[in-house]
Amino acid sequence: MRRAAAAIALAAALAAPDWALAQPVLPDAAEVVAETDAGLALLRRGDAAAAFDRINTVNEIAQTNPYGPLATFYPNMGLAFYFLDRGETAAALQFASTAVTGFNTHGMGDHPGRLMASVAQGVALERMGRREEAELTLRGSAGETRNRPELSAVHGLALYHLARVATLLDSNDQHEIRRDFLDRFSSDWPVPLPDAIHIQYYDLEHAERSGGAIEDLIRRSETLLQLATPIENLPRAQLLYYHGYHGMLLARANRFRDARPFLTRQYRYMREARITGSDVWRNLRQLALVLYRTDGPEAAYGLLQGDLEYARSLNAPPEEVATLLRDMGHIARNGGDNGTAQDHFLAAYAEARRALPVTDTLSRELRLLIDPQAPGFDAFAFAEEVRSIGSGQITFLPDASGTLQVFLSQGFAGVRPQMAGVNPATTGDPATFLINRALYHAMVGLPDSMRADLEAAHTAASEGRSALSPQAAIFDIINAVGFLWGTDHAPERAMASLEALYARYAGLTEGERLIFHALGVYAGSHLNKSDLLKREVLTWTRQPRAAAPETPWDIFANLLALEMAFGNLPAAQTDPLHAALQEAIGPPPGNRLARALTDMSWLMLASLDSRSDEALAARALVEQTLAETLPDSHHLLSAARFTMANTYLSRGDGAQSALWMRKAVTTLRASKYHRPDRLAYLMARHSRALRAMGDLHGGAALAADALALIDPDTASGTYLGELLIAQGSAIWDSTNNPAKAAAFFDDWLNRPGLLDRLQPETRVELLILDAGARARTGDVETALAAFARARDAMQLEHLDWRFNRARLELEQARLRFRAGHWSEAFADVTLANDIYADWAADNAVTAVADPETWKSRASWEAAIGWSLAQSLDP
Predict the structure, then answer these.
(1) How far apart are CA 282 and CA 275, in angstroms?
(2) Which pLDDT does position 2 carry in this prediction?
């Protein structure tokens, strides 16, 4: 990769080696590497201009002459570090990605140049805020450089940025990563001391959030201040931030007078510098709390009132303004002024809803503070919203159907307030309350909490003072829901419950049988047991309530089963069941979440329209609804955002697709129960979006990192196929070498049993790509055999294979055309276009809607036909 900012002639002005002065003698590969290393040494000494001239000069020579991969890509790595040093992260990422892809595709994945480039790539991603991608890359590069003494410096850099990103992403092993960095920190690492000390602060903050003893936290904070204060180049804002944090810990220990000077020092500095951000408002709230205890409520209220206008003058985020108003409301209420308190709470809720969904923690908290009977409430802009969410009172029943009804209507925003803070012992029937709370935890993706509630409910029911029987099927139903729907990270943990339900099948009610079969369909999908899926989906269709749902459990069961039925059963079979479910759900606004989930399944799996404005709008509405009714870490919200990414990708908008894919990854990553293979799958799809934007090397590097994240022997076949498609396509795109792609496909497709694990559509896609790569290598016979293999894979009659067949036959026609087999090529291309026209007619894909595809197909048919005509005797 070249950089036009400097000419080769610059070499003459440098203290350059003989080869740079005596043209046309060129350096050999070792000299290219040595020059790049010399440039990096200049960069470390602070001479950035000389470093750039040195590295860029040798890079220009390497890119304009026939070198091998080492000399071609090593200077790219050097330029990546130069641009990191200059703060030009986009350029750094571009050069690093090019180097990583180049080394990898030439079998040099263990070369120091590739390892250093991977570190630069991870650092650039972290600095650009692309944390999920950065974590993936940095975990790999920190591990690969760990026991390489010659790479100690870049290892330290990788470990520092990994510690940062693991903290910011709240990774499960963040503490271990931070301790590894702090315990092994070396002054030889290119990590400034202020940055290193902040990792220690992160560790202290994590200990606080994890419930560490307050006196121990205060001691650790004192140590942090003792270490930070003497550092000469530590920014004043950073030091005073530590002062403010120490003051907050002292306040938590009720040492309010000790806390006040620390908080005041930070407060005064931030006000003088007119600093904005969450740190400012947190400090302000802590100082107000301290003043409340030391000087009384009037002093605290006055501080908040004055800073409310300050916050608005700085355009503080609505949620920060809302928090200030909330705190003012608390002070007013504690002073007996309920009218002023309600005014503040209403104003706080209106501010919060400018930026936050109804499901956000702050939105929920503020709703609980609002009194609908207070004067002025009826005129409040959000009065109906507050009433409607508050009106969904749960009736706690032994089958948890009351909880399920409110959840399907309002999502977890309507259920959580009625579960939070309740002592089961005070409910009159602890077992029944606990079984309902277990369902809530199952639905929101908290399986550990679900299991604890199920066990407690069973114990309470066994004591005999409950309407809930300890033998009730609901125990196994909820457990299966939690591990199959609420989170899909451990579907095998649902199987014992399904087996228990099957063992007592004769005694199950009609409704219990319906949900049992729906969960069986889900288990078949998540466990890659296609026979189980097919059997259960057909059995589900024969259940009376599949066509006539009556209860909340019936609605939930059918929306689960339909999700898997779409694509596995013909439309003639699913359409009437879909219509029956929609009728049972009813018109808006009831069953809001149930409606959105049903719509999402249909839009993702059954709709033929994925490109139109109407399709985009429908998917956006589903995503918005799920964002307002599910926790922000729910895997189904991630799926909705993934759907948005795919929709934009199908419309050719790679930038929006990449944005939504990052949202999908962030959402999935937010749950500690996410599946690594699903995360890798989303990363692979993200690589497609990057390549669609023209970032071929970045896409290739991400695809390689995604594939390295999983164990191919245990990863779900649903996800593995996409990982292979992404990596094979990325190799082809980034190298423009179909032979390398064909070699990759050959390695994977011939592994015993692998193709059988993949989804049918993915299997066909992979085989078509393999055949296409072989066709471009010119090996006609091998390519024709690969096309036949792909064609034979299109066997399932309920799937519409016409688009794939049309694509396959056109690729085969091109192969035969290039080989001069005009007659066979013409037969292929006419068959391909006939099949495509038939498919397009059924899917409303007109020449107006997709002119480029129609034009390309017509051009190929004309070109092949003309060549055939020219070959015939007059």
Answers:
(1) 13
(2) 45
Question: Predicted confidence band at 849 (pLDDT cuts at 50, 70, 90)?
Answer: low
Separation between Cα atoms, residue 287 and residue 261, nearest integer Å:
10
pTM of the model: 0.74
Whether 22 has a pLDDT exceeding 80, the answer reads no
Residue 569: phi, psi to the nearest 5? -130, 150
Mean pLDDT of 203-209: 93
Tens of pLDDT, residue by residue over 133-186, are: 899 899 999 999 999 999 999 999 999 999 999 999 988 899 999 999 999 999
Cα separations (Å) of 538 from 525, 607, 822?
Answer: 14, 21, 47
Is the per-residue pLDDT at 189 higher than 90? yes
What are the start-end ranges of the H helices in 185-317? Answer: 193-209, 214-228, 236-252, 256-273, 278-294, 297-313
Q: Is 566 helix (H, G, I), strand (E, B) or coil?
A: strand
Q: Are 671 and 445 in contact (CB under 8 A)?
A: yes
Whats the size of the chain, residue-wise?
874
Torsion of CA 859, 864, 870, 871, to 10 degrees: 180
How many angstroms separate the CA atoms of 858 and 522, rounded?
43
**For residue 764, which of 811, 732, 827, 731 has the smallest C-alpha distance?**
811
Contacts of 132 (CB under 8 A, 6+ apart): 169, 662, 665, 666, 669, 679, 683
Q: Nearest CA to 331 among 307, 305, 313?
A: 305
The Cβ of residue 107 has, within 10 Å, a number of other Cβ atoms equal to: 10
DSSP letter, residue 255: -
